[in-house]
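Q: Study each token:
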Amino acid sequence: MIPVILSGGSGSRLWPLSRQLNPKQFLSLIDTNLSLLQATIHRLDGLEIQPPRLICNEEHRFLAAEQLRKLGMEGANILLEPVGRNTAPAVALAALQATVEGQDPMLLILPADHTIKDVEAFQESIRIALGLAMEGKLVTFAIVPTYPETGYGYIEKGDDIGGGYRVNRFVEKPDLATAQEYVLTNKFFWNSGMFLFRASRYLEELQKFRPDILSACIEALGNGSQDLNFTRVDRALFSACPEDSIDYAVMEKTADAVMVPMNAGWSDIGSWSALADAFAKDADGNVLKGDVFAENTSNTYVHANSRLIATIGVEGLVIVETNDAILVARKDQVQDVKKVVERLKQADRHEYSNHREVYRPWGMYDSIDKGTRYQVKRITVQPGAKLSVQMHHHRAEHWIVVSGTAKVTNGEQTYLVSENQSTYIPIGQVHALENPGVIPLELIEVQSGSYLGENDIVRFEDKYGRA
């Protein structure tokens, strides 16, 4: 059994913590030590599985690789999607990749951004589903509903087949009255988006119902390439692939769809109110994260990331603070956060895509300050990492080492810069920065010039394969 972790979402409903280039699956929203992606992999401990395979957006590749490295999984395969085409093509790529050399494993399809409170119950449902999948069934995991949720799709159970049920039908997100009726009947379950089936069975059914998707994925993967641990598919061919979900493409059409109930404290953390429900509340119904003083405050979620937040006389709010944005919303309107993100995107504001802290394959940088002709960054370079050999047409750079040792290439010269030392890179000078040490290198970079955008980088050499 190979876990296939779907990690391509943007998580825009959890803005401002979740951003396009650092979405919710890579954030430590529940467990301070594990991101949602890492927790998804961690809860598989105890199952007989092969190493997981991750499917993610190409722009998240180094972030994903770093999170796998921290779990001791440096060699794990990461399949990169150049564009998002929903879950049916993504899983088709994983199934095609898994069936090479005569292999035909079970595929356990898991979104990377779910939470599970009862891991034992979660694993028991998988063991039950495994028996059904070995009989050729395509299994979906159906969540036992705890309240009439209108934000989820539902599955109606059919006949009992021993350990599971035939799928009678899939139902779109209902209105409140319909959801209340569903919960009372005990026949309807939340659609989790988790699946288990043999790779060949999924491909057979996809060929039957959506041969256009399958043929596009075969061509895109066949014309792809291997880059370090990354499997790349052909961008043009995959971009031409139709978009569709597993539910629509296969599960709603196949005669072999079955469901296994799961009662494991599941949530897809799809909104701030859902995240608040994942935590224990205080006597006033509040969830307070970070440096928060709450006075006469009730039924409110407050997340302070970088400074003190004080609330007085408020009720039913979500307040989230990062170092470059603050969200204040009524709990019953948090679904509209996506509208704010869309407006930020239309206005070409960086806050929709990036935090002030930006992760790179070599480490990260934090934009501390910025003016009309200057910008200050705090740069962290991991041990053994190296920035690309590059130059800039419009800016000069001053580097001041705070801790560690920097190996600097500055034109024809290469030299070391230690703590409390600095160096200067003129406009147009070819240069590179490397950490030859065993501890992280931290430095302050002061940029000055007429244009300070990230696209003023001409790369001559890059160990990470960036253009």
Notes: The radius of gyration is 24 Å. The chain is about 20% helix and 35% strand. The longest strand covers residues 188-198.
